Amino acid sequence: MRTFAAVPSDEPAALGGGDQAPNPVEQLLGALGNCLAVGYAANATVAGIAIDELTIGLKGDVDLHVFLGLAEGHAGFDSITATVHLKSAAPADQLAALHERVQAFSPVGHTLTSPIPVAITPA
């Protein structure tokens, strides 16, 4: 990540971790939330929309049995839900257009919703 320090990661105690940092799937949700927040801020600025308050809640469902090798199936999120709470004096139609634009152009959102090749190779 350019020249930034490594981001700490941990697991809850129930999964053998020390619960001292978000786990990787929580970080993935955080990346989506951060990307959406930047998208709202940037696109609102371009559109001349003042945002009074913005919060984004994220929820994802993961089957831990599959992650732990106790069952077969999809090891990643089965679904992700982002709930956007946006307070602004802008008209409803401008806010609807802002929401559509952010959703349409979120790089992390696109990455999560599009099949992309991922190569993992030993060095």
Spans where pLDDT lies below 50 across 5 or more residues: none
Mean pLDDT over the residues:
95
- Termini Cα gap: 19 Å
- Strand fraction equals 15-25%
CATH superfamily grouping: K homology (KH) domain
Rg of Cα set: 18 Å
The tally of helices reads 4
Which CATH-level-2 architecture?
2-Layer Sandwich
Give the biggest sheet: 2 strands, antiparallel
Q: CATH fold name, please?
A: GMP Synthetase, Chain A, domain 3
**Percent helix range:** 25-40%
Shape: elongated
Class per helix and strand makeup: alpha+beta
* Adjacency order of strands in the biggest sheet: 1-2
Provide the number of structural domains: 1
Task: Write the element-wise H/E pattern from the N-terminal end onward.
Answer: HEHEHH
According to DSSP, the number of beta strands is 2
CATH top level label: Alpha Beta
InterPro entries: KH_dom-like_a/b, OsmC/Ohr_fam, OsmC/Ohr_hydroprdx_reductase, OsmC/Ohrsf
Protein name: OsmC family protein
Verbal overview:
- This is OsmC family protein.
- The protein has 123 residues and is of the alpha+beta class.
- A two-stranded antiparallel sheet has the order 1-2.
- The protein has a single domain, classed as K homology (KH) domain (GMP Synthetase, Chain A, domain 3).
- It is elongated.
- The chain is built from four helices and two strands.
- α1 packs across α3 (92-105).
- Helix content is 40%, strand content 17%.
